[in-house]
Amino acid sequence: KDVVKNAGSLVGKVNYFWGGKSSAIGWDSAWGSMRRVTAAGSPSSGTIRAYGLDCSGFVSWAFNNSGMYVGDGTYGQRDRSIVVSSATVQAGDLAFLSSYSHVGIVVGQNTGGNILVIHCSSSANNVVVSTASSVGFTVFCRTIAIHQIL
């Protein structure tokens, strides 16, 4: 519940930033400040944009703010989880593209039975809630997060 609550607290409030991470508990005062994208591998690399989170940074922040470590980067988060079926997916599970190039947090289902996922979206340039199918999330995983002392 805490992971979903924390993730939901950033919907519409934090920009997408390639390579963006935060270890802040609560709101990070750096979000929104103009910074150069220094991480390689994105069309935005080298540009100056409002600082925020990338998809895996968003997931890490939500878990960290719930007192858990879920891993770093989409591959690290994948490696700290086990695959579950879409029929057994639960709020707090992770949703991945099949390439593991994007990750979000399952928040439940809408009235039509579609799986809903909170994720930091580069195309929306923000934290948003989408149906898994509209984004292409097809792999669902239950995390093996480590509880940590905050």
Task: Provide a descriptive summary of the structure in words.
This protein has 4 helices and 10 strands, in the order αββαβαβββββαββ. A 6-stranded antiparallel β-sheet has the order 4-9-5-6-7-8. Strands 1-2 form a two-stranded antiparallel sheet. Strands 3-10 form a two-stranded antiparallel sheet. It has 150 residues and is an alpha+beta fold. The model has no long low-confidence stretch (mean pLDDT 96). A hairpin with a 6-residue loop joins strand 5 and strand 6. It is globular. The longest helix has 10 residues.
Q: What proportion of the residues form beta strands (DSSP E)?
A: 25-35%
Write down the oligomeric state.
Answer: single chain
Strand-pairing-aware structural class: alpha+beta
Report the C-alpha radius of gyration, rounded. Answer: 14 Å
Instruction: Show unreliable segments.
Output: none
Question: Total strand count, please?
Answer: 10
Number of helices: 4
Biggest sheet, open or closed, and with what strands and sense? 6 strands, antiparallel
Could you outline the blueprint of secondary structure elements for this entry?
Layout: H1 2-8, E1 34-36, E2 48-50, H2 55-64, E3 68-69, H3 73-79, E4 81-84, E5 94-96, E6 103-109, E7 115-121, E8 126-131, H4 132-135, E9 139-143, E10 146-147
Antiparallel strand pairs: 1-2, 3-10, 4-9, 5-6, 5-9, 6-7, 7-8
